[in-house]
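Appendix C reproduces, verbatim, an entry submitted by the partner laboratory led by Prof. M.T., so that reviewers can inspect both the input and the predicted structure.
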Amino acid sequence: QVQLVESGGGLVQPGGSLRLSCAASGLTFVRYDMSWHRQAPEKERELVARISSHGGSTYYVDSVKGRFTISRDNGKNTMYLEMNSLKPEDAAVYYCNAKGYGNNKNDYWGQGTQVTVSS
């Protein structure tokens, strides 16, 4: 059974930092591109950052460039999102996604972790 478990969310003041983790089990981690998505109340879910299977390629939505860093440790089956200089508009539920590539068509989601940015 595949599981993606996010952790690291919480309440932080504007300008603060958080580090999210996504621990994967039940899948061959290196066969998946990984990404973080977020959804704020009454808004659509949006892609925040993506990292290729071996970490050689990354993508960030413009609003987080220079502030967020996505990374992965394939030896630990874990992906991370380092979030700095957090803004109130970054507040959302953050979801981890594992998407297969090539002949691997699997697509998995975690349950989400809440990030609140408020003074």
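The longest strand covers residues 92-100. Additional entries are available on request from the coordinating office.
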